């Protein structure tokens, strides 16, 4: 499966009401403690892998996978041996 370009991804999430689009890069082995955000997230993993845990459910995400996290949702993240890059739309 071919990934969209950043411009295509950006246009798609903006059309769904996301007002900010960012590139997020995480180092190998990085882990974030449980936290939440004051914005909704819609994202596409474009490099590497990570594990997203929400309400005890763990998702193993790799390049090509998408995920969403609603504002105020407590979650943790753990990044693989190569780290990860994802494109993220945020809606405040």
Structure notes:
This protein is mainly beta. 11% of the residues lie in helices and 59% in strands. Strands 1, 2, 3, 4, 5 and 6 form a 6-stranded antiparallel beta sheet that branches. The model has no long low-confidence stretch (mean pLDDT 97).
Fold blueprint:
Elements: H1 6-15, E1 20-26, E2 31-35, E3 40-54, E4 57-62, E5 66-69, E6 75-91
Mean pLDDT: 97
Q: Could you spell the SSE succession in H and E letters?
A: HEEEEEE
- State the CATH class: Mainly Beta
What fraction of residues sit in β-strands?
A: over 45%
CATH H-level name... which superfamily? Jelly Rolls
What distance separates the N and C termini?
Answer: 31 Å
Short description:
The chain is mainly beta and about 90 residues long.
Considering the chains and any ligands shown, give keywords for the structure.
single chain, 92 residues, mainly beta, Jelly Rolls, 6-stranded antiparallel sheet, 1 helix, 6 strands, globular
């Amino acid at each position: 499966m071919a990934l969209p370009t950043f411009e295509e991804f950006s246009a798609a999430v903006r059309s769904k009401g996301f007002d900010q689009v960012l590139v997020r890069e995480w180092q190998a082995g990085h882990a974030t403690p449980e936290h939440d955000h004051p914005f909704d997230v819609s994202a596409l993993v474009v490099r590497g892998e990570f594990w997203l845990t929400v309400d005890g459910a763990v998702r193993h995400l790799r390049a090509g996978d998408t995920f969403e996290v609603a504002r105020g949702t407590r979650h943790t993240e753990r990044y693989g041996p190569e780290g990860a890059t994802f494109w993220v739309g945020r809606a405040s």
